[in-house]
Design a protein that fits this description.
Blueprint: H1 3-15, E1 19-25, E2 28-34, H2 40-55, E3 62-68, E4 75-80, H3 88-101, E5 106-110, H4 118-121, E6 131-132, E7 135-136, E8 139-140, E9 146-149, H5 164-175, E10 184-188, H6 195-204, E11 208-213, H7 217-232, E12 237-248, E13 255-256, H8 263-271, E14 275-281, H9 283-290, H10 304-318
Parallel strand pairs: 2-3, 4-10, 4-11, 5-9, 5-10, 11-12, 12-14
Antiparallel strand pairs: 1-2, 6-7, 8-9, 12-13
Helix pairs in contact: 1-2, 3-10, 5-6
The structure holds adenosine-5'-triphosphate.
């Protein structure tokens, strides 16, 4: 057995395939360790375990480990709306779940400073992230999606009056957290088109934006404002989603359109943006979301549209230009 083989045999139960170029020279063992995606604690533990395993060999007196970390080419997609209450958070959570189920390593950021609702949607209410090396560590949701919300940083029910720079700093901390091997971050933006939104997108340069609107004219006018905001900051619009279109009466089955229907599709067409899909107004969506079991996570029929929209999002992500 060569020295290289001996060193590898000693450490591979600990390092897996992360160790490379092991050498032994005059009692000193050295190697390169790829620590991509490991948290600070995991890195320290792996380093200490490898050292101990090598020092247990009779001819090793000293160990040098050079750590490398591949910089992740991580993309940020924002979900925005011109006005509140149109279902932006519901869409963001369900899209994240549908993308995860399709194999995308996705993290979820709740940047809604006015009413962070992702902890409830993703069943992580009351949990608190801790920090390591000055960076927040996302909370693991039950859907395999790491997440961070401003709602995790304040006590439940505590009023939040984030303003200007304070809001910007808080959002920055969520985005610059230790996202591990997440390749895509979905951010649920605060509703509206104010300074907080503009400075966030200027600073963090999302790869694209998804706009959620209900079908009625007023909501669509606000959605157009949101599109203007992204255009101003040179953020590509991935497309529009129409939410709460067409209500099927749970008793008689008749479909009515309390907010109209088709408005977002027509608006997308007239502005030349893709239309990503239409989500019906369905009490099952509200109930499941409020219960922390978003419909995209189950086989429920209500979840299907979210998977279809997520598939369109994946197509967009897979285009080489992005
Ligand atoms: N398609 C739908 N059918 C039924 N209820 C829905 C639908 N979409 C969202 N809802 C419900 O509407 C309410 C508002 O949705 P949500 O919180 O996602 O909106 P939002 O745009 O993120 O609001 P905010 O302005 O507070 O951020 C929630 O109770 C949610 O469960």
């Amino acid at each position: 057995m060569t020295d290289t083989e001996r060193l590898l045999a000693a450490i591979s139960p600990i390092s897996g395939t992360r160790a490379a170029a092991p050498r032994l020279s005059e009692g000193r063992a050295s190697l390169i360790l790829d620590v991509t995606g490991l948290s600070g604690d995991q890195r320290l533990k792996m380093e200490a375990d490898i050292k101990a395993a090598l020092l247990a060999l009779p001819d090793v007196a000293d160990v040098r480990i050079a750590m490398t970390s591949e910089k992740k080419d991580r993309r940020l997609i924002v979900v925005g709306s011109g006005k509140g209450g149109v279902g932006k958070s519901t869409v963001a959570a369900n899209l994240a779940i549908a993308l995860r189920q399709a194999g995308v390593k996705v993290g979820l950021i709740d940047a809604d400073i006015y009413g962070p609702s992702q902890p409830r949607l993703m069943a992580t209410e009351g949990e608190r992230p801790h920090a390591e090396d000055q960076k927040l560590i996302p909370i693991d949701s039950r859907y395999g999606i790491p997440m961070l919300s401003l709602g995790h940083l304040v006590k439940p029910g505590q009023a939040i009056a984030w303003r200007g720079p304070m809001a910007g700093n808080a959002l920055g901390q969520l985005i610059d957290a230790q996202w591990g091997d997440a390749e895509l971050l979905i951010a649920d933006l605060p509703p509206g088109t104010g300074d907080v939104q503009l400075s966030m997108i200027q600073k963090h340069k999302p790869s694209g934006a998804v706009i959620v609107s209900t079908p009625q004219d007023l909501a669509l006018i606000d959605a157009t404002r949101a599109i203007d905001l992204f255009n101003q900051a040179n953020v590509p619009i991935i497309g529009l989603i129409e939410n709460m279109a067409g209500y099927q009466c749970p008793h008689c089955g008749e479909v009515s359109d309390p907010f109209g229907t088709g408005g977002a599709e027509a608006a997308a067409k007239s502005m030349g943006y893709p239309f990503l899909g239409r989500i019906p107004l369905d009490i099952a969506i509200r109930k499941a979301s409020d219960a922390g079991t978003p419909p995209a996570a189950s086989n429920a029929a209500e979840g299907r549209t979210f998977h279809e929209i997520a598939a369109r999002l994946r197509e967009w992500l897979n285009q080489p230009v992005h």
